[in-house]
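It is worth pausing here to work through a concrete case rather than discussing structure prediction in the abstract. The textbook approach is simple: state the sequence, then state the predicted structure, then interpret. We follow exactly that order.
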Amino acid sequence: MKLRHYLRLSTIAVVACASALGGTVGAQSALAAVPPDAAASSTTAQTVAPAPAPRAPRAPIYLTFDDGPFPAQTKRLLKVLERNGVQATFFVLGQLAAQHPEVVQMEKAAGHAIGNHTWDHRDLTRLSTSGIRREVVRGGRGIRSATGVTPRCMRPPYGATNASVRSVNRALHVKQVLWDVDTNDWRLPSTNTLVRRLMSARPGDVVLMHDGGGNRSRSIAAVARALPRMIKRGDQFAPVQACL
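Step two, the predicted structure:
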């Protein structure tokens, strides 16, 4: 009885061990069915995936305004620019800067660049070398008297330039700035036309408009209408760097 009881207990123990061993082997077989480095490969792939290349910064558009300051108009334009967070470049006539220094001071205080547009808007290509120099120097002095700073850039009236004008500018260490987009606002087209011309500017373009020299209400209205649209499409604006 004792022997049979012992053998029965031994048989149960052997079966239990075999079952336990079978379960262990089965689990190892299931693990072996998964590629040993599958999870690691997935994690590694996610880790080393290249980040998207950063976009190159978009070049600004350079708004420029000639023939001012005309106090009432220029102040209205300054408010439009401020409302849109835009800084521009004003090519100022020295004669008008001397008459309305407070307006030029407002331009400078708002962070706009101030350029020399000569003393009284004469066609420099029709002048002698000494005449060209006199116009540029006198215009610069008028601006300096208003702002305390001699302008570092100039725009020849009408865009009229030649070798003599360029030579005088070099001698005076003044950078000549022309333009890429001419809105022809001085011809008084409709505001809608001016908006389209202004919005045709692309990154890096210098845009020519006016805040003086006549009635510029359409120009100012076009700027007010176009700027929010241009900003929404991603355009950025800055003063002409050569004038700062």
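Step three, interpretation. Residues 62-243 form a domain with the TIM Barrel fold (CATH 3.20.20.370). Residues 1-44 have pLDDT under 50 and may be disordered.
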